[in-house]
Amino acid sequence: MVGQEKNLVGIDSYEKLINDVQLTTPTLAIVEKGIITSYYGGASNISTFLNIEMEKIKADNIIYNIDNSKEVKVPLNFTPKKYEITYPDGTNKQHSIRETYNPSSVGFNEGQMIFPDKFFNSYLPGSYKIKFFNDETEKTINIDITSELNYIDVTQIFNQNHNEYYVFFLRDGCSGCNAVKPMLKTYTKNYLNYDSEENYPLYAIHRSQVKVSIFGNPENFVGVSKYEDIKLGYFPRVVLIKNGVIVEVYTNSDGTIKSPFNSVMK
Question: With a cut of 50, which residues of the chain have pLDDT below it?
C-alpha cells in the first residue's frame, strides 16, 4: 500500500487506511466498533499476539467431558467471593466461596478457581456460563459439558419421544459402571447398524444428576411408570422402558450388562 508509515490506532475508514498508511506486511489490525484500537506488524509479532489470545480463549472456554472427568482450574487476577452458574435454559444459581481452600470442594487457591474432579458430572451435557465475582470485579467463562452417552434427568425418564428405549443408571467410582461404559457407548453410536430387533435408543442417568432419592433397597423397577417410585440399590443397571413403563432390567453380579447388548454387539 502507498502512503506514510504511521500509527494505525484511530483509523476508522478503509479509505484512510489505503491512502494514508504504508503497512508492514503482514499486518494484523484489531478493530472495535469501527475503529482500529491496536495492530501488530510482522509474522513474529502477529504469532506472539495470537498465541497469547489462544491462551486467553482456552482459559475462558472450557470443554469438560463427563466420560473423562478431571479437575478444572480457572486463572483469576482477583479473589472472588462468589460464583454464579447459568444453565442452558437461562436459569442461574449463586454459590459462596469459602475463605479457606479445601481441595475436596470448590475453592480459590494461588490465583486459580478450582473445581475438583467429577464436580461437573452432576450437570447434564450442554453449554453453561460461570461468573466469578467480588464487590468490584467479575469474570465470566463458558463451559461446554459433553458425553458420548445421552444423559437425561430422572424426571424425564418416561418422557422420551420413543415407544421403547433403554436407560443406563450409573455413578462415579463404580467399577461395574466403568466396565460396561465402553460397550454402552459403542452401542449408543452404532445401535442402528446392528442386526437385532432390540435396537432401541440408550439414555443415561448419573446418580449425582438425580434430583429425587432413588437409592434404596429393595429395588423397584419392573412395572414402574413414575420416576418418584424408582428405587435403585445397586449399579450398574439398564432398564427397558416400553410405552412409559419399565418392562425389563438388565444387570449381572460381575458388573456386566447381559442381553440385549451382548447379543447385538457382534
Answer: 1-5, 265-266
